[in-house]
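Appendix B, example 12.
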Amino acid sequence: MKISNVIHKPISDINITPMVDVFLVLLIIFMVTASMITNKTLRIDVPESTQAEDLEVKDFIQIEVFKNRNVAINGKKIEKIEDLAPMIAKLASKKPDILVNIQADKNIDIQTIVKIIDTAKSVKIKSVTIQTAE
């Protein structure tokens, strides 16, 4: 039996090739899945107006009424219109002169819009606007 006189030195450098491979695979997975993610919000087809005015308002409460009659307040879906009053009151308590902007699909009946305006007025909102397309 022959014994070797070679002394093995510990490896003092780090091989980063496998780590780079892992990061490249993760990057590819991220890029592929990111392209599959789409915006899942519903589109609102607002009515057109020839006399619309642009408003310079920073703080407002956005109420959206979709074609399927779902309602959202500031992007948050609510179950029924009757739940609007406490939510508007809570938001308006921070800023009493806040504006309510209604963005409704053009096929929504006028009674739904009137009900939302009445709800806003019942909690002491002074200004209500309806968003249109130009």
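Strands lie at 60-65, 71-73, 76-78, 99-104, 127-130. The CA atoms of residues 55 and 121 lie 20 Å apart.
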